[in-house]
Design brief:
By secondary structure, this protein is of the alpha+beta class. The chain contains three helices and ten strands, in the order H-E-E-E-H-E-E-E-E-H-E-E-E. The strands form two sheets. It has a five-stranded antiparallel sheet.
């Protein structure tokens, strides 16, 4: 009788740890705000770059006070963290271990959209950022140059440099004669250049690739031994 009670207690405790682990991840990622009416965007495709083994096995050193999950997939229409917004977030973690040391994923891949308005708000001064088609981005803002306010339209392509989202203008138009535009372009180039760190994600994730969509920048991040919940 006593052994039966102990066994039932152990089974219940293990189940509770597993439930808490899953709930912790869900709560961490689902810290979302009902922006844009609270409607989730289209269901995103699975993240790129996570190789799922054909027959996953728990690690040999798994302790009795740890719970192992072969993989965990979480979706969120909107995530708000670190004062920033991400849309259509798709997350896949593999070899996830929950225990006294927290929740750690051996591999983690995240696909998320950084809305254009997030970048525009960072640049400030009524800046508008939008797709220019053909994988290009357009930045429209008013800048002060040579003592005058000038409307500037800059177009460029998005790249990844040192883990940052970068858009460096390939063309800059201030709506004047070509010789004047060329002279002022050098002055205002830095004001229409985008350098953005994607915030609000677990430490250790590294930006791998970025593509331009109609509603923002679609980013893919990957990392190993990522601590999801301390």
């Amino acid at each position: 009788m006593k052994w039966t009670r102990v066994k039932d207690w152990l089974i219940g405790a293990a189940g509770m740890v597993l439930l808490l682990a899953v709930m912790a991840v869900i709560l961490w990622w689902a810290a979302s705000a009902p922006a844009a009416g609270g409607e989730a965007g289209p269901v995103p495709s699975p993240p790129v770059g996570v190789d799922r083994p054909p027959s996953a096995q728990p690690p040999a050193g798994l302790r009795g006070d740890e719970v192992w999950l072969a993989d965990v997939a979480l979706d969120a229409g909107t995530v708000v963290a670190a004062g920033s917004i991400l849309r259509d977030v798709r997350t896949v973690g593999q070899d996830v271990v929950a225990g006294p040391d927290g929740l750690v994923a051996a591999q983690l891949a995240v696909d998320a959209t950084v809305p254009f308005e997030v970048i525009a708000n960072k640049l400030g001064d009524g800046t508008v950022v939008r797709s220019a088609g053909g994988g290009q981005v357009m930045v429209v803002r008013t800048v002060n140059a040579l003592g005058r306010d000038l409307p500037v339209t800059a177009t460029g392509t998005v790249e990844v440099e040192a883990g940052k989202l970068i858009v460096e203008p390939r063309s800059i138009d201030i709506g004047g004669p070509d010789f004047l535009s060329d002279a002022i372009a050098t002055v205002v180039r830095g004001l229409v250049t985008i350098e953005h760190d994607i915030e609000g994600l677990p430490e250790g994730l590294v930006l791998q690739d970025v593509a331009v969509q109609d509603d923002g920048f679609r980013a893919n991040l990957r990392g190993e031994d990522i601590k999801l919940v301390p």
